[in-house]
Specification:
alpha+beta
């Protein structure tokens, strides 16, 4: 019963979305005819990684892969290398952290509980 109501709500939203966009005067995206489109229509404004000096990019553009929750200390060190600094565990449960150049990883016992990018 709940699934039916959920699907009915979702369907009604899908039907009313274009109508709401017209009422709010939101411009609708133009569709691209792939058959007749010119190749430059698909070119990206983002430079290729080989031609880009990562240090010169704004920080919003640079993406850093972070360790995932549940990873072990051994797997983090294997994948990301040795940290610049290891801060010993404090509290109960023991929380420690490893500091890398662009991010910090927080561990509870030997497992990742959180990882954050530095600004």
């Amino acid at each position: 019963m709940k699934m039916t109501l959920w699907l009915a709500s979702l369907f009604s939203l899908a039907i009313s979305a274009p109508v709401l966009a017209e009422v709010l005067e939101i411009p609708q995206p133009e569709s691209i005819d792939v058959e007749s489109a010119q190749p430059e229509a698909f070119e990206s404004e983002v430079p290729s990684p080989e031609a880009t000096d990562v240090e010169s990019l704004p920080t919003e553009v640079v993406s850093v892969t972070l360790p995932g929750k549940g990873m072990t200390k051994d797997s983090v060190e294997e994948r990301f290398g040795s940290p610049q600094d290891k801060v010993e565990a404090v509290g109960e449960p023991p929380i420690s952290r490893w500091l890398y150049g662009s991010f910090t990883v927080y561990f509870e016992y030997d497992h990742v509980i959180h990882a954050v990018n530095h600004r």
